[in-house]
Here is the input.
Amino acid sequence: MMLLDAILLLAIAMVFWLFWQGRRQAEHARRYAQRYCQQHQLQFLDIAWRDGKLAKKGRHFGWLSNYDFAFSSDQQSRYEGELQLLNLRLVNITTPPYRLPDA
Here is the structure.
């Protein structure tokens, strides 16, 4: 019975750790998206997690998450960009062509 209890405790700890790690990754993704929008003079609107999987990029191995973030360039249009994180590292940000505001 003690072995079963230990396995159950480890499984519960793993679930909590995965949840906590997912929240940390989501916070990092939000900061990356906001910083990208600020650097490109865009208005950040929101961000949402799309999917995730175990992956290896180069020599780094971990949880690869894809996020969709919304932004506006002229306060009238809404565009959807994609952000990719491996663990807490930014892998890629892609945005569609967007309209530049009138000067």
Q: What stands out?
A: The helical segments are 2-39. The mean pLDDT is 91.
